[in-house]
Design a protein that fits this description.
alpha/beta, seven-stranded mixed sheet, 13% strand, 36% helix, Rossmann fold, 10 helices
Length: 275
């Protein structure tokens, strides 16, 4: 594998402050986190005792989405932005178990992701990790390594999974994503998960935990989350709670939303197709 700025750039980490990637890792039971991150995770668990299960269910949704994209949609190129620290099943593993030739680019703003990706991907030539910022989408599109690894003339699955909540609407995150989507070929897909606000106290608790620990982590109405898809049509079953969302089996017999546990009504997922 290759990396964006190796070998001369040695990432330096400020471990005194929690980061999104490391708090999420702590919630997933990972080991790539420090005391400040574990304190952040503890705050999440205080407000939302099942926050760890929310994180795990989000990872499961990521795999469901990637399996759909690699199998049913026939996608063999993945641009996973805000990819996070390596966990049990990552995008490249989910994609490459369907199509061994699938190519994956991980992008994350946190340099710890690059450091760990180097170790994980040492023997995987089809996958690279790049340190870049979603807030500067043009730098992602102009990145030489990314352009060499992915063919923007063919469909790509753009994954913005579990990131929107970290940006306030005033920052206009949809505009960053629009810049990326505009650069994708017809037949590409946009895969998103986000925190939802349907008026439930536990959803508000999730927001409080994020704001107090990380300074971000906003919830949004389903109507507002749909706008993240920029008017592109959602593939079945549309936008739904993670536990009800099975893009490979959109007609599956799923429980009513009201039958889910409250913690299962905190995140929603959807995939849209660029025509
Ligand atoms: C909650 S984690 C989600 C990880 C993974 N996508 C998942 O859903 O399991 C959010 C990730 O987004 C990254 N992130 C936050 N701000 C970002 C930015 N401006 N550009 C790129 N990545 C960012 C964080 O470092 C973190 O790894």
């Amino acid at each position: 594998m290759a990396t964006s700025d190796a070998p001369d750039a040695t990432p330096s980490f400020d471990t005194s402050q929690p980061t999104i990637a490391r708090v999420y890792d702590a919630l997933l039971g990972g080991k790539d986190n420090f005391a400040a991150d574990r304190e952040g995770a503890a705050l999440y668990l205080q407000y939302v005792p099942d926050a760890g299960r929310c994180a795990t269910e989000n990872r499961e949704a990521l795999v469901k989405g990637v399996h759909y994209l690699a199998r049913a949609a026939g996608i063999d190129q993945f641009l996973d932005i805000g990819s996070g620290l390596p966990t049990q099943k990552n995008t490249h593993e989910a994609a490459q178990e369907i199509n061994a030739a699938a190519r994956v680019v991980y992008v994350d703003v946190d340099p710890i992701v690059l450091a760990h990706g180097q170790a994980l991907l040492a023997t995987n030539d089809s996958t690279i990790v790049v340190t870049a910022d979603l807030r500067e989408p043009q730098t992602i599109l102009d990145n030489e390594q990314i352009r060499q690894h992915l063919d923007f003339g063919r469909p790509i699955a753009l994954m913005i999974v579990g990131i929107h909540m970290h940006f306030h609407d005033d920052e206009k995150p949809d505009e960053w994503v629009r810049t990326l989507v505009d650069a994708l070929a017809p037949g590409s897909y946009l895969f998103i998960t986000d925190f939802v606000d349907t008026g439930e106290p536990l959803q508000k608790n999730m927001e409080r935990a994020g704001l107090e620990s990380l300074g971000n982590g906003w919830i949004r109405t389903p109507e507002r989350i749909e706008q993240h898809f920029l008017g592109l049509p959602l593939v079945p079953p549309g936008l739904d709670f993670l536990a009800r969302w099975f893009p490979e089996e959109p007609d599956a017999d799923v429980p009513d939303a009201a039958e889910l546990q409250p913690w299962q009504r905190i995140l929603m997922a959807g995939i849209a197709k660029k025509g």
